[in-house]
Design a protein that fits this description.
Blueprint (H helix, E strand, L loop, with lengths): L5 E5 L2 E4 H131 L1 H19 L5 E3 L11 E4 L6 E6 L3 H9 L3 H26 L9 E4 L3 H10 L1 H9 L2 E4 L1 H22 L1 H55 L28
Parallel strand pairs: 5-6, 6-7
Antiparallel strand pairs: 1-2, 3-4, 4-5
Helix pairs in contact: 1-2, 2-7, 3-4
């Protein structure tokens, strides 16, 4: 191959094949050099990357270990907190259950007491209802009684008899007694120290009173007032005509009205009827007024019995005074005996004082004899024959 051949011309400079080969070789070497440099740099970069990766890995391991420790601490803390939370929750649940149990117990007790009180109130209500039922039955029976004149009269007579029977002795009155004219009043009361009797007759003018209460117009009220006046005056005249007998009954009779409301209405609104009754010598009396009359008669009977027993009381007083006189005599004699006994006791005290004084004088005397004062005649005597003085 001839390397001197011109391959190409660049400008004025011809380029031969040799130049191309040399240029290609130089270019190849340059490229190889560049590649080596690149490879070397790449290897250095890789080493740096490896070192950096290792450093990062170590840092990551460190961080992971720290994170693991933190996770472990977190898990332990979390477990401790969970355990504490569980204990707190158990304690709170126990407290809540205890409170709930106490609340349920107290609630049950209150409920039991409330039910017991409710049962008691229901029992009271039941009893009251039974009483109300009984009372309503009695009211209905009383209404039936009052609606019938005969039963109403029997009712008034029963009230009158109860008042008189409770206040007077059984010998002071008689019911349905017969008078000399053949009439029989409801009650005759026998006065003390008097042969005359007081007539008590029961009347109950209820129709006119009910009509007066039920009247709504003035005309109805006037008609009811006329009827009530007519009924009451009819009963007053009937009592005065039948039961006021001279020398046998008292000059005043008692018309018993067994209703305080009727009696009050008569005295409040029918004063003319009361005055006419007084002129006919008839006293209209309610249960309370009759009770006062009975108590007054009871006092009269007591005074009469006291007067009857006055002589006996005087005799007993005289005997009591004689007993008091005898008691005074015996008391004087007993006082003399006590005075004489006191004198004797005073004398005995004086004698005892004298005796005691003489005994003390004797006790203070000295009966001891010395040897030089002993008589010669007594020296030869036995000591057993010497007299001894016993003091005291």
């Amino acid at each position: 191959m001839d390397f001197s051949d011109v391959v190409m011309v660049v400008g004025d400079q011809p380029i031969i094949l040799m130049d191309l080969v040399i240029g290609a070789g130089v270019l190849t070497l340059a490229m190889l050099l560049v590649i080596l440099i690149v490879v070397w740099r790449a290897g250095g970069r890789r080493n740096d990357e490896v070192i950096s990766a290792q450093r990062r890995a170590s840092e990551l391991e460190t961080r992971l270990s720290e994170l693991a420790g933190q996770l472990k601490n977190f898990s332990e803390t979390t477990a401790a907190r969970e355990a504490q939370m569980a204990r707190n929750l158990d304690e709170r649940l126990d407290k809540v259950s205890h409170r709930l149990g106490e609340g349920l117990h107290s609630t049950s007790e209150r409920t039991t007491k409330s039910l017991q009180h409710l049962y008691e109130r229901l029992a009271v209500i039941d009893t009251a209802q039974q009483k109300i039922t009984t009372l309503s039955d009695e009211m209905l029976s009383l209404k039936d009684i009052l609606s019938n004149k005969q039963t109403r009269g029997a009712y008034g007579q029963a009230r009158m008899e109860a008042i008189i029977r409770d206040g007077l002795h059984s010998t002071a009155y008689r019911f349905q007694g017969t008078l000399s004219n053949g009439k029989r009043p409801d009650c005759l009361i026998r006065l003390p120290e008097n042969e005359m009797e007081i007539v008590v007759d029961s009347k109950f003018p209820l129709e006119g009173f009910n009509a007066l209460k039920a009247a709504q117009t003035d005309q109805e009220k006037l008609e009811a007032e006329r009827q009530l006046r007519r009924d009451v005056l009819y009963h007053v005249k009937d009592i005065a005509a039948k039961y006021l007998i001279s020398g046998e009954t008292h000059e005043t009779a008692v018309m018993f009205v067994p209703s305080e409301s009727v009696y009050a209405d008569l005295h409040e609104n029918f004063e003319d009827v009361i005055q006419k009754a007084h002129r006919h010598r008839v006293i209209i009396a309610s249960p309370n007024v009759l009770m006062m009359l009975v108590q007054t008669m009871q006092a009269l009977f007591k005074d009469a019995r006291m007067r009857e027993q006055a002589s006996l009381i005087q005799k007993e007083v005289v005997m009591l005074l004689e007993d008091v006189s005898r008691f005074q005599d015996r008391l004087d004699k007993l006082q003399n005996h006590f005075r004489m006994a006191n004198d004797d006791v005073d004398k005995l005290v004086i004698s005892s004082a004298k005796i005691n004084k003489r005994g003390q004088t004797i006790e203070q005397m000295d009966f001891a004899e010395s040897e030089d004062q002993t008589p010669p005649a007594l020296d030869n005597q036995s000591s057993s024959t010497k007299p001894k003085l016993v003091s005291g």
